[in-house]
Amino acid sequence: MNKPLDIRTVPSVCPLDCPDTCSLNVQVQGDTVVAVKGSTANPYTANVICNKVARYYPAFVHGTARLTHPLKRVGPRGSGQFERISWDAALDMVHAGFSKAIADHGPESVLPFNYAGPHGELAGGSMDRRFFYHMGASLLNRGPLCGGVRGGAYASLFGAAPGMPPVQIEHSDLVLVWGNNVTVSNLHLAPLLKKLRARGGTLVVIDPKRIKIAEQCDMYLQIKPGTDVVLAMGLAAELERRQALDEAFIADWVAGFDPYMEQARQYGLARVVETCGISAAEFHALADVMVAAKNMACAFGNGIERGRSGGSALRAGMALPALLGHHGRLGAGVMAKSGGATPKTQARLHGDHLIKPGTRILNIVDLANILQDDSLEVPIKATMIYNHNPVATHPDQSNLMRALMREDLFIAGCDVVMTDSMAYCDVILPAASHFEFDDIYGAYGQNYLQRAAPVIPCVGESLPNTEIFRRLAARFGYDDALFQASDSQLMDEAIDETHPQLEGKRPSEIALDRAIEMMAPDGEPLVMCKNVTPATPSGKIELFSQDYETRYGFGVPRYDPVPQALPLTLITPSSAKRTNATFGSDPASAGPEMLEMHPKDAQKRGLQDGALVSVWNALGAVTLQLKVTEATRPGVLYSPKGTWRGSSQTGFTVNTLIPADIRTDIEDGACYHETFVEVKPAKA
To answer: How far apart are the C-alpha atoms of 657 and 673, rounded to whole Å?
Structure first.
């Protein structure tokens, strides 16, 4: 009788698109991942990980959806009918498809269609960027899909300077959690907030939904979706009226105060109450705790950016600590971009010098239309979908699906599992999971640098992204040394090894069982306006943005509501079962997703809790299971994002209801939360 193989525990890092970037302990038996747990290597994530990573990762790596061999489409586009082929045959297909497009229309007819699947520096963007840059393929602006608006808003005030690390909450006495579903998408803030309250600090939650953290706070404001800018500007005006602004700090560290406040004074109490749907008492109570605070910290979520006025809302919210002088000391400031302290050298890693001057840049949100537009001077005739599941994540899903159905569009795909998007590909290249290759991880929501090595061999014939693009480069005859760099070399090219916190070690040599805390240049904790200077043209926190004035016609925040065509607003937040669309293939995400509705709205439509309902608008319809709850406002619906097509009777997800033509006020971003719908019983 064979003796069972021993289970060993190996360090790793979570690569998913999440601000926390947890350190992991992976239990491995033979070549199989049997369990994923947290580790103490990263003091911030401190042995705690989310349930979805713990529950669903082993099946993601070894389950029936796993892609283990190259595949060729043998049935109609989108049918999911494929046959196994060799790597040589698969690379030949990609070469032939791309080469035909280039011969017929030039290199800009080829498009890399990727976003942020893995967040390792190598898997997320390294050899692939070099490959497409050298080819001269169309460039892609990825930020407008998610994160670009929040990043632009932050940069308009602070430039590229890193913000307050979340661990500094231990020095705060007031924290505003604004549009941030902490327990689902920013998990490790929760214990810090619990400690804040235990020592007598104040937690305020501002969100259209009574999220879990709102049940454990001192004050909760349930504002109407998309009105955050009105509340933030109204607070600025009220704080000025109370003579609570820090004039000395403003004089030393703030630029653009006068035009900013001239705009803010237009948002009086009556306008705030009417627009935001809160009471005057709630507004004044919030102003009271802000005036009383000694160290106020603000945690803004990406949910805010998904409305028309989202960029303005984030700018206005982030301006409040500056107006009150809550910078320059521990526990005061904006918790954002602390990962910017990591000395990434992405231009070197990506090979930015390879970009051909004048190459066009396409907005990722526009791709459904661009892929169908033959009137373009250079139409897109070949694309590669990787690090992305656009069918599950893009707005106006049905239009994107029409674009991918084009038989004259060559589509190569690369992924760890068979997704809704891979089903449209002509050829699929199987990607290794992050447990199967080396990578280095600089987080975006905290300030620790980590490295991970393989814990198991590559499953089947799957390969790391870096090796896949090395082979593609070789197949296309790109023989420069840039395309032959090893993963160790790429790690060293991803991070500035001269940074003092690396202590003379090459990035590829940093320990696997510890995380390196990135500090300010003086070696002390990061503190804006103390040892971190705003990286803006003025060197100050800029409340007026000349860049946005030039580009959009408004240098200060403004409220620009979208006319509501149907009576209900649909919000699609993060899921407790998926990280964006990752793990959407797991049985836990099978069947209809939940739709939360206020009892008044359900009663008006004769809908019962637990019923299967059809949510519809002019773009399409999706079936969801109703949950009647007072956690949401009347007129506002909630359904978690990231479901896959099989979850609905219609073959569409909530993304088919989301318009792609409504854009944010800055950075031309997707407005996921400007989705207006009606609900009726689903047909049996």
So the answer is: 10
The CA distance from 287 to 242, in Å, is 9
Q: Are 598 and 567 in contact (CB under 8 A)?
A: no
- Left (φ > 0), alpha (ψ -120 to 50) or beta: where does 80 sit? left
Banded model confidence at residue 1, pLDDT cuts 50, 70, 90:
low
CB of 622 closer than 8 Å to CB of 650? yes
Average of per-residue pLDDT across 598-603: 98
SS3 assignment, position 513: coil
Report pLDDT for 522.
Answer: 86
Q: pLDDT per residue over 455-484, tens digit each?
A: 999 999 999 999 999 999 999 999 999 999
User: Buried b vs exposed e over 465-487: b needs ≥16 C-beta within 10 Å?
Assistant: bbbbbbbbbebbebeeebbebeb
Contact at 8 Å (CB) between 428 and 71? yes
Q: Which residues pair with 431 in a beta bridge?
A: 463
Beta carbons of 378 and 356 less than 8 angstroms apart: no
Strand-pair category, 361-363 with 139-141:
parallel
CB 37 within 8 A of CB 54: yes
Question: Tell me: the pLDDT tens digits for 486-520?
Answer: 999 999 999 999 999 999 999 999 999 999 999 99
CA distance 444 to 338: 7
Q: Among 683, 667, 565, 672, which Cα is nearest to 154's?
A: 667
The two most distant CA atoms of the chain are separated, in Å, by 81
**CB crowding 303-329: b at 16 or more within 10 Å, else e:** bbbbbbbbbbbbbbbbbbbbbbbbbbb
- Whole-prediction pTM: 0.97
Can you tell me whether residue 466 is helix, strand or coil?
helix
- In a 10 Å sphere around its CB, with 0-12 CB exposed, 13-18 middle and 19+ buried, how is residue 651 labelled? middle
User: Nearest Cα to 597, choosing from 614, 621, 574?
Assistant: 614
